[in-house]
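hey so i finally got around to running both of the ones u sent me last week. sorry it took forever, my laptop kept dying halfway thru and i had to restart like 3 times lol. anyway pasting them below in the order u listed, first the sequence line then the structure token line for each. didnt double check formatting much so if smth looks off just lmk and ill redo it

first one:
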Amino acid sequence: MKKLLSAMLLLVMSLSLSACSGVNEAAVPVDEYFKAAKTLDTVAMEKQILPTNTDGIEKNKELLQAEDDPFSKLFVDFMKDKAKKMTYSIKETKVDGDKATITVDTKYVDAGPLLKAVFGDLIMKMMGSALSGGEPSEEEAKTMFTTVMNEQTAKFEETFKTKTIQIPVVKKDGKWYIEQVAEDMVDVASSGFVSVVSEMGNAFGE
């Protein structure tokens, strides 16, 4: 009887450990990508992308490529702060041989309204300067941008958005990688900045 109870206990423990052992092997790169996205660790994020997918790696790299520029650094600092509040949950893993589709539910700070407000305010101020007979110098433009960004950030009220993303992954040389980097993935990591920049670019015909 004791042997039977021991065997049953071992079985239950084994099943429990199996259930808690984490994500499916095919979903590991997606899990690691979003885990790294919470700190905007683009190096760790890129390691999860198929090495031959140079476009995807470049798209991911663009998140922080202008961090040294004073204009972009304010946005990057803001994104890093808000990325920490992003949450994700892997909902489904469909494996078909060496390919799989991972479905992820995400929730993130929607910073799109901030970006629109900053550029709207900045355009108005620059138009005002032009109408008064002078174009601001590069240094004046930097100061103006910093002031506007700080003012709008102070007024910013956090709201959250949710997105469900289906991510294709592929197994190569025994390791699973993200095959394609969807714009939604980078958008979530950037707190919605990517979609707003794309929207504004379309509005200006770019």
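and the second one:
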Amino acid sequence: MHAFSHHARGLAVAALIGLTGAPALAQAQSDPNGPPPDSRYSDGRYDATQEAYQAHQACESQKTNHAVAGALIGGVLGAVVGSQVSGHGARTEGSVLGGGGGALAGAAIGSSSTHCDGPPADAAYAPPPPPPAYYAPPPPPVYYAPPPPVCEWARDVLYMPDGSQRHRQVHVCQDDRGRWQVAP
């Protein structure tokens, strides 16, 4: 009877480890109803994304439940196996170590048994596009401006039919070929 109570105490400790470790394995759950309705998405995008969000949350919840169940089952089985394979005087320690290892392995196996797709795209929850911006007209085109002409004052001599000469100052500029022309 004494061996049975010693064995039962080891199983109880292993189960306690499994139960106390299970909440740590559970994932934080956000609001299962999803984000609040938004008037920006009255075209049905919000409803479709809401359904995808809820389906994803349900899958994640199921994955968490499987991890917890796996931790419990693995903890109990690990405690039993650890108790049986440990030395005669170390059955409690074997139960505790087996229960802890079984709980971790069971949680990993339970969690991996459910495969969830990624969360729904956040496109429907993105902020609305910014208001239309003021678009200024483009800057005027830049035209190549030739260098300013080289101009100066020159003295012009007019020969009159009677043989006299008249002198005057005229404004002359060089053209693109370098020839001097009277400026208009």
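quick thing i noticed on the 2nd:
The two ends are 131 Å apart (CA to CA).
anyway thats it, ttyl
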